[in-house]
Amino acid sequence: MNKKLYWQLPFLALLIIGTVAIIVQQRNMPYQHNSGKIFGTFYNITYQSDHDLHQDILRELQEVDQSLSMFNSSSLISRINQGQRPDISGTLFEEVFQLAQQISDDTQGAFDITVAPLVNAWGFGFKKGELPDDRQVDSLRRLVDYRLLSIEKKGSKHFLVKKIPGMMLDCSAIAKGYGCDRVASLLKRHDVRNFMVEIGGEVVTNGINKERQPWKIGVAKPTEDSLPGRQELQAVLSISNQALATSGNYRNFYYRDGRKYAHTIDPLTGRPVQHSILSATVIAPTCATADAYATAFMVMGIERAKDLLARHPELTAYLIYTDKQGKYAVWTSPHASKYLR
After folding, report:
1. 281 inside domain
2. What is the per-residue pLDDT for 3?
3. Cβ(169)–Cβ(114) under 8 Å?
4. Angstrom distance (rounded) from CA 311 to CA 308
């Protein structure tokens, strides 16, 4: 045998032993689970680590809450809605605002964070009174248009400018997803490789679960009368190193005078959507992106959603709708089959 090869054998043996030791250590490392309440909903975070990172996770979530929560009167978005002009340079709010504007452009306004006045008027925000009439809806629609927002830069400071003073912002259709992304980034900074972050049904995954399998996420069957935690599943998706978000009207709605009102408001018409689509599940590289597009698809309807998805191969959709006979039907992106189990 070549003398050079003899010298290499000890190093090769050490490399093999070291690799096996790392694999054994990783297999024996426990999975932590943290849960709680944030953004008016619940979070569940599972991750493989020797350390409990719950306090770090809470600080990250509270930072997002302090920027984007409409239910926190001192948050940045609340102060903007109150007519104040805080400096937003380098804030989480500015990052989310810029992403929201991009998606609004891409969806031709189907996603619009200025929809808050209409959401409130229809009884899905802070106010619940009489339903708005046509005159009120038309009046409120003047306050809803993402194109009327801009960022003004004065030296190192950035300020949000509203062309109409009464405009209000609502980031609830992107904030949960963004919160998932922030926690995922935190876990990666702590060198956590295997985790699932879930906030109010929006999910980010990385690596594998404790069964050494991709993370399995259920898509609920859109039935109105199922109890939370007991809903029947339409499908189970196996995902890893991806984010997932679902938007649906089949639970968040109310009846008034015999008519059903869905919680998703079309920013262009000013009224609850009336499409056949019941829920939209989107898989994307980031959860904020998945969250926003899932909401947009509920507004756009299935045909316009298909057109947009054809332009975005990085997005995968699982859409549940009612067909012409009133039965449940499913449409999926062409490459969705790799996630279905």
Report:
1. yes
2. 55
3. yes
4. 5
Per the structure, the complete domain to which residue 272 belongs is given by: 214-341
Q: Tokens for 2?
A: 């070549």
The predicted model gives 86-92 an average pLDDT of 97
Model confidence over 113-152: pLDDT tens digits?
A: 999 999 888 876 544 557 788 999 999 999 999 999 999 9
Helix (H, G, I), strand (E, B) or coil at 203: strand
Residue 54 within any structural domain of the chain: no
What secondary structure letter does DSSP report for 136?
A: H
List Cβ<8 Å contacts ≥24 apart for 325-331: 328/221, 328/222, 328/234, 328/278, 330/234, 330/235, 331/302, 331/306
Q: Is residue 52 part of a domain?
A: no
In a domain, 34, yes or no: no
Q: b/e per residue, 198-228, with b = 16+ CB within 10 A? A: bbbbbbbbbbbbeeeebbebebbbbeeeeee
- Cα–Cα distance for residue pair 341/331, rounded to 1 Å: 16
Determine the 3-state secondary structure of 236 from DSSP: strand
- DSSP annotation string for 5-18: HHHHHHHHHHHHHH
Counting the structural domains of the chain, the total is 1
276: Cβ contacts below 8 Å, ≥ 6 apart: 301, 302, 321, 322, 323
CA distance 220 to 214: 19
What CATH number corresponds to the domain at position 335? 3.10.520.10
What is d(CA 235, CA 341) in angstroms, rounded to the nearest whole number? 8
pLDDT tens digits, residue range 290-312?
999 999 999 999 999 999 999 99
This prediction has a pTM of 0.87
